[in-house]
Amino acid sequence: MAVIRHHVGQRLSEIAVHNGTVYLAGQIAEDDDQDITGQTREVLGHIDRLLAEVNSDKSHLLSVQVYISDMLHFAGMNAVWDEWVAQGATPPRATVEARLANPKCLVEIVVVAAQRS
């Protein structure tokens, strides 16, 4: 079965789909002057948009990895996450403190999801 890639760039593809499974590249906020709630809200919006492009959505998440620049942002990120995540379909998730490539980025989120039938 073929791998289908979307938004292919020199360094990465934003989306890869294989056998009904959707893999997104790590999503960050474009407006890195926002606080953790603003950046998280923007990142989750990117995820919604990308999943919709390939016939998926947040209720089909299989796995999520959240990278935050400082655990002091954990509560703020979770407040936005809790408003966004599909209740009854919360995915397995890991949250890790990490030094991100751009020091102004406070959060990066990577998801794997299933396509809708």
UniProtKB/TrEMBL annotation:
One matching Pfam family, short form?
Answer: Ribonuc_L-PSP
Q: Which CDD domains match?
A: YjgF_YER057c_UK114_like_2
Q: Which PANTHER family match?
A: PTHR47328, RUTC FAMILY PROTEIN YOAB
Give the similarity note.
Belongs to the RutC family.
Give the protein name, as stated in the record. Answer: RidA family protein
Organism of origin = Paraburkholderia panacisoli
